[in-house]
Specification:
446 residues, alpha/beta, Rossmann fold, 15 strands, 33% helix, globular, Haloacid dehalogenase-like hydrolase domain-containing 5, HAD-SF_hydro_IIA, signal, HAD-SF_hydro_IIA_CECR5
Length: 446
């Protein structure tokens, strides 16, 4: 899997930006709450990571089991019993808007600091924030970009208006009668792909133009300008579940088209500076931070011992949770080896190399030693979304998954390990998932 190369320049922004998000105030804000819940005596603490589409809602329709179980996740005052973060690969809105929407659908208060959109970690990519960036997607993409810290933003619509001869696939949008003049823009330094756009042909054409001209689409194409300017992509979901019986194309499908077109034209692979959103480890690092902050608001004084990620997509939710679990295990082994070595004990002669990502995260969060991090992350697959027991079969024996030939719906740059698509648990819906977690942890759930 391609590593995220910008942690050293952006991680320090992660904690401060997410803390800043908690100060947003709307009618569902938690800023006025006074949490006083503690884990039952003698029991471990844990946190819940919920996917949204296919787990809690189908399009605009809430899944009945979701409304039912969320009534049990809050007390009579509407305060959460355990830390809850909603982790979605959607990214066509602001966190506050998504929080209000979830609050309405679930009939339970959700605050912005409980919501993590696919683009949320871009807050920490600070050295891009002063660059001129082209943004692709739908919804208030310009507002979203500014909210994340980007100061100089160009949308695809702004680009096509400045260069009216570039967008000619739709005959009705071609210039009529006379050739309009070009209104040049400042050179574009980077491209940010927030999510699937509405007019794919326009976005594909103009993004390729920008990449082949080093950010100045009024110039001639040149495939020798390689590698191209940086590209950051959010949300790699090939498919997602709405109200239709079958899955719909996601942003991952748009990325497949862009990658194929770029290689067809140039002969080179499109390169990403960063891939963000599930199943990327950077997304789960950020989610862990939000869970820790939720636990602090609950008044918990002990670290969260385990995370449970509930999702409907084996290649995004399950793969990502299992991948993060393996990183947590590697982190704990490395810390144990380092402590043994510093204590004069005999350490593993071939210790695991400490990952820079984990080191910087632990330093920034004030986590010293493996005891400050979760022990693991369990994946729970529900059957109300992309995955259906009637249409797909998960291997019953995890040892056979490594050699099994399966269709890979993940992103091109992620090494496919079939064993990571094997969930820790498979349940019918989110209600069964939460009940299973509380039973596993020995917590009461009224």
């Amino acid at each position: 899997m391609q590593r995220m190369r910008l942690w050293k320049t952006g991680w320090q922004l992660l904690k401060t930006s997410s803390e800043g998000a908690t100060k947003q105030v709307n009618k569902f804000s938690s800023s006025s709450r006074s949490y006083s819940h503690f884990p039952p005596q003698g029991l471990n603490s844990f946190g819940l990571l919920f996917d949204i589409d296919g787990v809690l809602v189908r399009g605009r329709t809430p899944i009945p089991a979701a409304k039912q179980i969320f009534r049990n996740l809050v007390d009579k005052n509407g305060k959460y019993k355990v830390p809850v973060v909603f982790v979605t690969n959607a990214g066509n809105c602001m966190r506050q808007t998504k929080a209000e929407h979830l609050s309405h659908l679930l009939e339970t208060e959700v605050s912005p600091d409980q919501v993590m959109l696919s683009h949320s970690p871009l807050r920490m990519f600070s050295h891009f924030h002063k660059m001129c960036v082209l943004v692709s997607g739908q919804g208030p993409v310009e507002e979203v970009a500014h909210n994340l810290g980007f100061q100089d933003v160009v949308t695809v619509d702004m680009l096509r208006e400045a260069y009216p001869l570039l967008d000619v696939v739709d005959h009705n949008r071609r210039p009529k009668d006379s050739i309009p003049s070009t209104r040049g823009l400042r050179p574009i330094d980077a491209v940010i792909l927030f999510g699937e756009p509405i007019r794919w042909e326009t976005n594909l054409q103009l993004i390729v133009d920008v990449l082949l001209t080093s950010g100045s689409p009024d110039n001639n194409w040149s495939s020798v300008r390689y590698p191209h300017i940086p590209v950051l992509a959010c949300n790699m979901d090939l498919l997602w579940m709405a109200e239709a019986k079958n899955p719909r194309f996601g942003h991952g499908m748009f990325l497949v088209c862009l990658e194929s077109l770029y290689k067809k034209v140039t002969g080179y692979d499109l390169k990403y500076e960063a891939l963000i959103g599930k199943p990327s480890v950077v997304t789960y690092n950020y989610a862990e931070l939000l869970i820790r902050q939720q636990a602090e608001r609950l008044g918990w004084t002990t670290p969260v011992k385990r995370l449970y990620a509930i999702g409907d997509n084996p290649m995004a939710d399950i793969y990502g949770a299992n991948l993060y679990n393996s990183h947590l295990q590697a982190y704990r082994r490395t810390k144990t080896q380092q402590q043994a070595k510093s204590g004069g004990e005999c350490a593993d002669p071939h210790p695991a190399t400490a990952d820079d990502t984990h080191k910087m995260m632990s330093d920034e969060l004030g986590v010293h030693g493996a005891e400050g991090r979760p022990e693991g992350c369990s994946s729970i697959l529900v059957c109300t979304g992309v995955y259906s027991r009637d249409q797909q079969e998960l291997p019953s024996d995890p040892t056979h998954t490594v050699t099994e030939q399966r269709i890979f719906h993940g992103h091109r740059d992620f090494r496919f390990d079939p064993s990571l698509t094997q969930p820790s648990f498979v349940v019918q819906d989110v209600k069964e998932a939460v009940e299973l977690v509380f039973q596993q942890e020995g917590w009461p759930l009224e």
